[in-house]
Amino acid sequence: MPRGLFTILLLVLSNVFMTLAWYGHIAFKSRLERFGLAAIILFSWGIALLEYCCQVPANRIGSAELGGPFSIWELKVIQEVVSLTVFTLFAMVFMKGDALRWNHLAGFACLILAVYFIFRK
User: Fold this and answer.
1) Residue ranges of the alpha helices (H) in 28-101?
2) Is the distance from CB of 50 to CB of 17 less than 8 angstroms?
3) What residues contact residue 15 under an 8 Å CB cut-off, 6+ apart?
4) Predicted local distance difference test score (pLDDT) of residue 108
5) Model's pTM, two decimal places?
6) pLDDT confidence of residue 27
7) How far apart are alpha carbons 82 and 115 in whole angstroms?
8) Which residues of the chain have pLDDT under 50?
9) What's the rounded Cα separation, in Å, for the pair 111 and 115?
């Protein structure tokens, strides 16, 4: 599998874990309400560890300084686009109370422009 594609797949997996660690306790509050804040924090840290187990290798595999196809700037923008894409899907499936609005889409369009400008040689 090409390094660039493997990097992006690891970033997607990393962001799934990140979204669960950061927002899962809100989305699944009815299942977690019996636990105290300290337990939820520890549980989130455990999920975040899985995030880092994917994020760090993704950046190392993808970094041009370590033989990968992406500059550090490109890696960061890819990560942000992946992060918002994963979060959007998560919010639409699990957070029914917060609707996707036109201004969110406008912001995503700005991110697409950011990708264009960052990858422009």
Assistant:
1) 29-32, 37-62, 72-94
2) yes
3) 51, 79, 82, 83, 85, 86, 87
4) 87
5) 0.86
6) 85
7) 11
8) none
9) 6
